[in-house]
Amino acid sequence: MKRVFSAFLCAIWALGAxxxxxxxxxxxxxxxxxxxxYCIMWDNEIGPxxxxxxxxxxxxxxxxxxxxxxxxxxxLTSKPQFTPTxxxxxxxxxxxxxxxxxxxxxxxGLIGKMLQEQPEWARHLDQKGGPEG
Length: 133
Prior knowledge:
alpha+beta, Glutaredoxin, 19% strand, Thioredoxin-like_sf, Thioredoxin-like protein, signal
């Protein structure tokens, strides 16, 4: 009986080792509010293309309303005061922030800098064969 139990435990351990480490979830949260001109500008300039970019693949966008209660799974350093505010979340915990929308050119550079510090960025580029992938 002990041998059967030992074999069972070894099989479970082997399956766990094959599965590898659990992947952290990286998300870009956008805090917005109705009537925000900069949110509308972002939606028009960046919104349609963001999911098609390396940035969108590494950190998919999730929108929140500024004044609504956050889910318990989201942990911020401080409550956003301006819209739009972009918060990089790892497993629901804030790891970076960009307040405001500085325009298309600055947005890509600032978000890119935040994301390039994350291990998912390099892994994604390795899988796709570089930034142009």
